[in-house]
């Protein structure tokens, strides 16, 4: 039998848990709790609170919008150590996973739970988030069995043109043209990878960045798909980086095609330093010499 790890306990008798979560976002109003709406956060928090018999509040790596899916969402919470010492859990987080599987609805699952040091922060410790976007240009639309997680595009798409447009956007830029406004939030992000591959009638885009602002991924997809269907040029897409506010020219792709598939973190000894660096809000001076 595997011995469960010794809890890392703070002065208040709490320990920090890291959760790996997957969900079908179709019937959720996004991650964040909203009064009167079904959300992923509230569903998981309520179930965890019931099992642990203590209030649970989750901090998440990336708040997904309504209809967006995840296979690699990460969250953390602080819970009383005594809550893990019940007969059914016995201090082993793996048992908690099995308990939750019996109580959560079919469209959300906590797939892994582990005890981590208090320096771990699901949001601020992250180095990068990876999304995939599934898009079909088949004239009949998405295959019915994949209709909940594959968006459709009404015109044929040239994957080479999409990759050319995507390459122009990679790097540290102000992505204001692609982001919905959120008071006090920076739109400067480092887009580390943006590429496409075709699998029959389905195109799969991979988008990796240190972080994303509101609606950024779906707007990136909409912009390069407009290039892929011939209505826009690669040069038009690249020129959007010069915009200082949300561009009305950029279509927002459907939520159902978007999936959060992974969040990357540094080794534990670097968590605290990463937290401090992430909390430093970027401004346009981070881009070097920029002509406004």
The H/E string reads: EHEEHEEEHEEEHHEH
From the spread of the alpha carbons, the general shape counts as globular
Roughly what is the average pLDDT, rounded to an integer?
91
Helix content: 10-25%
> SS-based structural class?
alpha+beta
Based on CA atoms alone, the radius of gyration comes out at 21 Å
The portion of residues forming beta strands comes to: 25-35%
Total helices: the number is: 6
**Number of E strands:** 10
The biggest beta sheet, please? 10 strands, mixed
Short description:
This protein has 292 residues and is an alpha+beta fold.
What features would you describe in this structure?
By secondary structure, this protein is α+β, with helices and mostly antiparallel strands. Helix content is about 20%, strand content about 25%. The protein has six helices and ten strands; from the N terminus they run βαββαβββαβββααβα. It has helices at about 40-50, 95-105, 160-170, 215-230, 235-240, 270-280; strands spanning about 15-25, 60, 70-80, 110-115, 130-135, 150, 170-175, 190-200, 200-210, 260-265. Strands 1, 2, 3, 4, 5, 6, 7, 8, 9 and 10 form a ten-stranded mixed sheet that branches. α3 crosses α4.
List the helices and strands and how they pair.
Layout lengths: L13 E10 L16 H13 L6 E2 L8 E12 L12 H11 L4 E9 L11 E9 L14 E2 L6 H11 L1 E4 L13 E12 L2 E8 L6 H13 L5 H6 L18 E7 L6 H9 L13
Key traits:
10-stranded mixed β-sheet; 10 strands; globular; 292 residues; 6 helices; disordered C terminus; alpha+beta
